[in-house]
Amino acid sequence: MRLCELLVASFLPWLAFSSPMNIIPPPANEVCLDDSSIPTVSTTLNIDLPMRDSASSIEKKDLPVFFFHGLTGNSTEGFNYQANLTAEGRVFVPLAFLREVVTNDERFANGYIFIGHSQGAMMARAVIEQMDDHKVHAFVSLAGGVNGIFYGPQEADRNSIKNLGAGFGAAVLPQQLFDFTGYTPEAYRGKMQADFVRRSMDPKLQAAYSITNLLRSPVRDVWLKTNQFLPMINNVNTCAWFDFHCHLEKIRRKNNFLKLKEAHYFASPDDGVVSPWQGSLLGHYSEVNSFGELESKFESLTVVEIHDTIEYKEDTYGLRTLDERGGLFRYTAPGVPHCCWMYDFPKFHTDGLCEFHPLFDKYVYKVLW
Ligand SMILES: *[C@@H]1O[C@H](CO)[C@@H](O)[C@H](O)[C@H]1NC(C)=O
Ligand SMILES: *[C@@H]1O[C@H](CO)[C@@H](O)[C@H](O)[C@H]1NC(C)=O
User: Fold this and answer.
1) What distance in angstroms lies between residue 180's CA and the mean position of ligand 2's atoms?
2) Hey, what's the signal peptide range on this chain (predicted)?
3) Burial 17-26 (b: 16+ CB within 10 A, else e)
């Protein structure tokens, strides 16, 4: 029954469906957003709130919260967070943008929290590493694309892959640049992926389309050499020994990351958009040596779990240190589609609705206190 034709969209946020329940009416081709489902939310700060007494010791529950939306979203998407947290007297800022907000406003002086959804979580982490004067106390990643994406062989990636050809692909990368519709289902098992990785090596695409920066090619050399973003944020980019600046930048990013007191990563095997979903818990697909192997060994790619990644083992950007001092938390929530971290959303595999409020209550709210 019933339910919907879930035309799931692939990747970060995007989905088109029609459901008899119609909590959220059929959108255009956004994974998460559509006009009628999202109340108009003022993006101005709740400036009327009294300033807290900053002399007293500040607890996490008093800290302001920033919300980073995902690839196809906008700042109104955090409306459920805004409603709950402002009702409790907290300062909530759906981004757009930051330094203007935090300087000259005493309410941010003792720190704040970043919440990022989907690509927004990757952006939030990049800000944490790049902003030398940040005071982010806790980072909360909701179904974050925080360790790159790759459409691999595991069954859980099928939902995401299905809709690359059904509109999502063209929405994130124009069809004349890469045609996701030009592949048979068999070709979606390695051939498309190898072509997509090759195409994403183009610096012009790297500069213009975030999907190519988020792509984590299992051909490691290629990924390190051609991805302008993710290797750098993961601090695994290659620095020539004499490149003093490059080495200093790594130290700076790691120091900035380690100003965090806590990082919380939430993910669900039923996400349906982030591939692999384990990337939201800082895993990634295993690696191969060449494009040829990417195709011939595609089916044997497996997910490398966080503790086996170079980023963690070599503590490239501070993850292991954060873990060792008790500040790294990861949560797997069953049955949560990508957008349910923000509002009610139909489930991908079964009938029924994933409801935001119970999920918020069980997982996210607790870490904001
Ligand atoms: C955010 O997206 C909604 C739904 O697509 C749209 O109605 C609204 O105008 C957008 N707001 C901004 C600030 O872009
Ligand atoms: C905010 O959400 C939490 C967790 O679901 C709930 O316990 C609390 O009552 C909510 N606060 C308001 C003001 O709605």
Assistant:
1) 42
2) 1-18
3) bebeeeebee
